[in-house]
Amino acid sequence: MTGVDGYRKHDCTVIGMTTVSVITGAGGMGVPTARLLGSGNHIVLFDISQDRLDAAVAELDGTGLDGTGLDGTAVTAILGDVTDRVAVDGLFAAATGIGPIASVVHTAGVSPRMGDAEFVSRINALGTVNVNEALLALDSGAISDGVAIVNVASMAAHMVPTELIPEKLFPGALTDAETFIAALLEIYAPYPEQVQSGFAYGISKAFVKWYSSAQAERFTIAGIRIVSVSPGSVDTEMGRLEAESGAGALLEGANVPRWGTAQEMADLFAYCVSDKAGYLTGTDILNDGGVIASIRARAAAAEA
Q1: Mean pLDDT by 10 residues, the chain (304 residues)
Q2: SS3 category, 89
Q3: Which residue among 49, 221, 252, 295 is buried most deeply as judged by most CB within 10 Å?
Q4: pLDDT attached to residue 241
Q5: How far is residue 163's CA from residue 142's CA, in Å, rounded to a whole number?
Q6: Predicted structure pTM score
Q7: Structural domains counted in the chain
Q8: 304 belongs to a structural domain
Q9: What is the C-alpha separation between 99 and 84, in angstroms, rounded?
Q10: Domain that holds residue 102
Q11: Do the domain assignments include residue 302?
């Protein structure tokens, strides 16, 4: 069915629906987040894969194989790339054409096994800038009171030694994206090619964490709360790509020695954008089953 500005849209029964929740990434964490937020908002999903969008809409409206649905909710699916600022601006134009934005949950991202260091950096870092800055650029009448955005970082951001995080370069992402990416690639260049994607992942997620704190005052002035959440090893299709190494290799030593679930992450995202979290902004929440705490405790014990 045709939606706003020709985008694909699936309509369910809409009962007094006036506010919108934008969710980037129609994958493992995006769909359960949409299910939670859809009880009170029109859901707008944004993803680079039409197949993922179609599968997500089918699952959310109850025609999917699992029979779940969002009773009384509408879902609009928009195809686009978070690294394309024009496409992201189009996303928010379409969303605000439906109603004021109540929340944004930016789950779109890639893992080290999904591309090279430049690809990982562009998706994770520049994608975050595009989505957040597009929200920040909206007129006050296009957002609801209490609007909030959650950016998905990673426990990897907490694993990179502080001295290796090129934080001085980070503000450049807001002024000259190409120079910023080129500078990051120079940072990665001395490392073996087989580890560059993993390093880029940690740095790009450290950027997400930094941005969600360093830019909080700008968002506060606009009446927007901003937080990041750093998931640990999550049992999603993307998470399982790291089952033999990376996040998967850390499970055995975790305080909670199992994969986290997409639903557990979605529950936290939904809380962060809710009125119950109205005092929460400018910070990162580490939700990793205690992996980082275990690593630090073992390191301290070894040093002692």
Answers
A1: 41 54 95 93 97 93 48 82 98 97 97 94 98 97 97 96 97 98 97 95 98 98 98 74 56 68 96 97 95 85 82
A2: helix
A3: 295
A4: 60
A5: 40
A6: 0.88
A7: 1
A8: no
A9: 23
A10: 4-297
A11: no
98, β-bridge pairs = none
User: Residue 272 and residue 279: Cα distance in Å, rounded?
Assistant: 10
One-letter amino acid of 133: E
pLDDT for the residue numbered 249: 55
How crowded is the C-beta side of 158, counted as CA atoms within 13 Å? 21
Nearest to 228 by CA among 167, 284, 303, 294: 284
3-state secondary structure of 51: helix
Q: Name residue 166's beta-bridge partners.
A: none
Read off the amino acid at residue 1.
M
| Three-class secondary structure of residue 152 per DSSP | strand
Which residues touch 10 (CB under 8 Å, ≥6 apart)? 1, 57, 61, 74, 75, 76, 77
Residue 186 lies in a domain: yes
Q: In CATH, what number is assigned to the domain containing residue 70? A: 3.40.50.720
CB atoms closer than 10 angstroms to residue 251: 17
pLDDT of residue 7: 46
- Would you give the distance in Å from CA 67 to the centre of its chain? 26
